[in-house]
Amino acid sequence: MISKKKIFYPISSGFRKYLQEYQRERELPISYSDLMYYTESIELLDEKGKSTHWETLLYPQATMEDLHTGLKHIYARLKAAGDTKAQEHLFIERIDYCRFGNSHPFRIKIVNRFNDVYDYFYIKTADASRVYGLELEHILSPNQVHYLTDQTTLVEEHIAGIPGDMFLALYAHRPEFHPKRIAKEFVKFNERCFLRLLGDMRAYNFVFDITPDFDAYQFRIRAIDFDQQFFEGSMNIYRPQFFKENYPYVAMAQEHFNRQVMMQYQQEERAVIARRIKAERHRLKDLRDCMVREEMSTREKISQLGNELAEHYQDPVFSKCNTMGEIIDRSLKRVLVATHFR
After folding, report:
1. First-to-last CA distance in the chain?
2. Mean pLDDT across the chain, nearest whole number?
3. What is the DSSP letter of 119?
4. pLDDT of residue 69
5. Distance (Å) of CA 50 to CA 47, 106, 112
6. Is 278 in contact with 139 (CB distance < 8 Å)?
7. What was the pLDDT predicted at 279?
8. Residues contacting 137, CB < 8 A, separation 6+
9. Rounded Cα gap, residues 181 and 163, in angstroms
10. Whole-model pTM above 0.85?
């Protein structure tokens, strides 16, 4: 069971040095707390008139220009390495706020005035476990992730795609979308989350990225919520297959694959992760040196997860781990040892 209220952990001095070294920590003109000084909010509804759990915010006219200029500057740093020329033709159309969930994010809609193409980015409180999750996603997954931190503020890019619950309702049964390809990607995503201990991947916390290929459509599942990076004690929290919201994907895999095929796809994912571990070994070592010193959870949850993984893998080293960082370090070392390149 997932904790109703996850503990927020501040970024430690050691982790902040890592973020500075890899150009994630930057001085930003607008902080999370600056955005809290709004004067009014309006509920944001979808096209069917239903609540989206977001509110559009209104700010004092006297502060709007400086606020929008600062937000455009942040976007330029996030997307264009700080080139201010890239922000001259942009404007902020809307600032939204979500009271739902743990992170209470701000969502910024930014528009290109020349062609009306728009993008989003998010400003949140910098929770250390979430930032670790973003960094591990960047290193170990097929996807690059762009984000910045500044003391207690976290800025994240928008990850485009169709939310997993919406994909099930509106897209999964389209005749041009082959269910075997969808199921294959879910099996690999499930394995990827488990190995790097990313939890709470219910259908609305990941998106589908769909790419037309020369003879069919290819699918990639991307996580969009990293609040539950190595926090919970139950092993199954880190396996998307055990959430009821994902049962249709599990049923799809069970219908089309036998155990041997699923094991093949799991091994393929482990091999890809092992290659990434080797390619990024210096960066991962620096990240590991930070992680193993930080508990990032309660003593009870660390002990529970270590014991459950020790039983699952028949590996007593897990039960001797004292931090979540040590547990994930052991998990990744097992990937390397178990993967043999010929």
Report:
1. 41
2. 93
3. E
4. 95
5. 7, 20, 28
6. no
7. 95
8. 143, 145, 196, 198, 223, 226
9. 17
10. yes
For residue 1, what pLDDT is reported?
Answer: 66
pLDDT at site 87 = 77
Q: How far is CA 84 from CA 28, 72, 80, 95, 231, in A?
A: 13, 9, 8, 21, 38
Ramachandran angles phi, psi of 92, nearest 5° = -85, 115
Instruction: Tell me the three state secondary structure of residue 8.
Output: coil
CA distance 330 to 323: 11
Element (H, E) at 154: strand 153-157
The alpha carbon of 45 is separated from its chain's Cα centroid by a whole number of angstroms, namely: 25
pLDDT for position 26: 94
**In contact, 280 and 202? CB cutoff 8 Å:** no
Q: Which residues of the chain have pLDDT under 70?
A: 1, 3-4, 101, 340-342
What pLDDT was estimated at residue 4? 65
**Cβ atoms of residues 123 and 110 within 8 Å:** no
- Residue-level pLDDT at 35: 97
* Cα distance between residue 229 and residue 225, in whole Å: 9
Contact, 78 vs 155, CB < 8 A? yes
Tokens 């904790």 correspond to 3
Task: Say if residues 309 and 332 touch (Cβ distance below 8 Å).
Answer: no
- Which of 83, 148, 85 has the alpha carbon at shortest distance from 121? 148
pLDDT reported for residue 324: 96
Scanning 197-258, the segments in alpha helix (DSSP H) are 247-256
Token output for 198: 């990313």
Alpha helix stretches (DSSP H) within 82-163: 128-140
Q: Alpha-carbon distance 285 to 292, whole Å?
A: 11
Distances from the Cα of 327 to the Cα of 229, 256, 301, angstroms: 12, 33, 12
Tokens of 132: 């670790």
What are the C-alpha distances in Å from 214 to residues 161, 171, 186, 217, 328? 21, 20, 22, 8, 38
